[in-house]
Amino acid sequence: MNQLEIAKSQLEVKGYLDLPINEKDIIAKIQELKKEKNAVILGHYYQDGAIQEISDFLGDSLYLANAAANTKADMIVFAGVHFMAETAKILNPNKKVVLPDLNAGCSLADSCPPNTFKEFVEAHPDHLVISYINCSAEIKALSDIICTSSNALKIIEQVPANRPIIFAPDKNLGAYLQKETGREMLLWDGACLVHEAFSMDKILMLIKEHPDAEIIAHPESEAHLLKLAHFVGSTTALLHHVQHSTHHKFIVATEVGILHEMRKNAPEKHLIAAPAKENNTCACSECAFMKLNTLEKLYLCMKYELPEITLSEELMKKALAPIQRMLAIK
Ligand code: 13P
Ligand code: SF4
Q: Is 112 found in the same domain as 100?
């Protein structure tokens, strides 16, 4: 049985019978469990609004990694995806880290299998390996330093000009960073499905309809969209931009969950989610992995302390150093 199957069977044995009936009751139970278990909920901006609201720390990947590094809680409940919970576990090997749904993976992390990446790194022994945090613990262990979209520019700018760089796993973010820094880097050929799902045709139609709108985009998006964008930045940078810009209307090209916090922080602004190629429920781009987490699963995972993230001591030790190097950069 794999970890997910074990977690499922354990939950089935204990039963879902005591699941509170409505959202208000579930939220009240989660609040009780937080106190009872000295638990902290770390929530990413791409989670459903209700989960964002109940999170103790809400933010982007870098903010949440810092929150995990500094928490005094006994149990970390990660309302995000697997690589984020793994990072929290690596930073807290002696704490319990749980993820509401163990299937909450990441297409970008999946696009970088450890065996092939190891061969790639070994073929370029003189290169400094910078990996985006959206990767597995095994990839982190093969890296020299980790970055997020918030600090990648700063990290690359600190690398001596004569040191060749491997950047993994996101080719779109990598290409954007090459353009911004003027540094040639060897790029791993990975990508995020969600940020590659935007339809240029539909966005161009939206621009015609709303010529006064600014296009803002996450750097995981493809180059042709980034070229069109008036502002490119990490999730937090996009949020700040909407709040502080003098513009009133924005077409937002990133995962639609961020609009929840944007609307709260800038209720007077007009926000339009950039449309995706496929017609889906929201006509925007949603991360199906992030959305696997629900309030019900959050409650159950806090109650039964499952599914739990477990990693070998050796892997955690190897993956910790590159994460700590990133966190040391202010
Ligand atoms: P940030 O949270 O660093 O902006 O990354 C976006 C993302 O895709 C998270 O999976
Ligand atoms: Fe991964 Fe993309 Fe989802 Fe972020 S939005 S978790 S990069 S698939």
A: no
Atom from ligand 1 closest to the CA of residue 60: 2
Q: Distance between CA 167 and CA 186 in Å, rounded?
A: 6
- pTM of the complete model: 0.93
- Tell me the residue range of the domain where 150 lies: 108-192
CB 322 within 8 A of CB 145: yes
CA 290 to ligand 1: nearest atom: 10
Q: Which ligand is nearest to the CA of 238?
A: 1
Contact 273, 252 (CB under 8 A): yes
Do 216 and 127 have their domain in common? Answer: no
Answer for the pair 195, 218: CB distance below 8 angstroms, yes or no: yes
Q: Looking at the structure, do residues 96 and 115 belong to the same domain, yes or no? A: no
Write down which residue in 192, 213, 243 finishes a domain: 192
Instruction: Give the integer Cα–Cα distance in Å for 56 and 64.
Output: 10
Q: Reduced to 3 states, what is the DSSP secondary structure of residue 43?
A: strand
Ligand 2 centroid–CA 133 distance in Å is: 11
- Residue ranges lining ligand 2, Cβ < 6 Å: 46, 81, 106-108, 134, 192-195, 255, 287, 289-290
Domain membership flag for residue 100: yes
Q: Does residue 280 lie within any of the structural domains?
A: no
Residues 98 and 124 in one domain: no
- Tens-binned pLDDT, residue by residue, of the chain (330 aa): 555 555 555 555 555 546 767 899 999 999 999 999 999 999 999 999 999 999 999 999 999 999 999 999 999 999 999 999 999 999 999 999 999 999 999 999 999 999 999 999 999 999 999 999 999 999 999 999 999 999 999 999 999 999 999 999 999 999 999 999 999 999 999 999 999 999 999 999 999 999 999 999 999 999 999 999 999 999 999 999 999 999 999 999 999 999 999 999 999 999 999 999 986 667 789 999 999 999 999 999 999 999 999 999 999 999 999 999 999 998
Pocket lined around ligand 1, Cβ cut-off 6 Å? 60-61, 134, 148-150, 192, 220, 234-235
**Tokens 């991360």 sit on residue:** 287
Q: What is the DSSP string of 158-172?
A: TS-TTS-EEEESBHH
* Domain end position, chosen among 192, 219, 234: 192
Q: What is the CATH number of the domain that holds 249?
A: 3.40.50.10800
